Amino acid sequence: MPHGVDRTQEGSGAQEIDGAQEISGAQEVEATAISRAAPDVIFKHLCVAEAWGEWGGFWTRARRESAGEEHPNGIGAVRYVPMRREEVVAWDPPRHYGYTALASYTALAACIMLAGPLTRRFRADVTLEPHHDGTLIRWRGAFHGFPGTGSFTRAMLRRRFGAYARRVARHSEHCEPGCPARLPGAL
């Protein structure tokens, strides 16, 4: 698949809205942050799995399990993040990066992580927009929760996405040599 595409499985009930996928009937959350870093710098920190541990903290020490279809970090790439696996489903450098969970979170993971609540059909989309002398980071997620968990899940994901957006914004502004996002081939 070429750059700038979004893979949606047939019959998934998803549709594209403003460059991101919406899961039919899903609950949604959103968080934003502003960074002085350029969109391409932030995008590299999102698409290189190993870079997540540089800015996201312990629970984001990710590694790529398999390469994408046309680019190692692009659509189809699978990364392992502690207690879950995620697949890249949207890749449009440096504007849009989307991923979906390949397996539902477990109750133990939700309790330990305090922010990976019980979900079915989870998807997140990160869009990067030029903003004055920097970038507006918009982290949106859609999910189907299990009965009785919707409010908790929304609150935890909003908190997590806000932390991710702020952390990647801050780290991208002051990225040190040796960060995996600075390696050749990220884009």
TrEMBL record:
InterPro entries: Polyketide_cyclase/dehydratase (IPR019587), START-like_dom_sf (IPR023393). SUPFAM superfamilies: Bet v1-like (SSF55961). Coiled coil: none annotated. It holds the Pfam family Polyketide_cyc2. Residues 1-20 are annotated as: Disordered. This is SRPBCC family protein. It comes from Actinomadura soli.
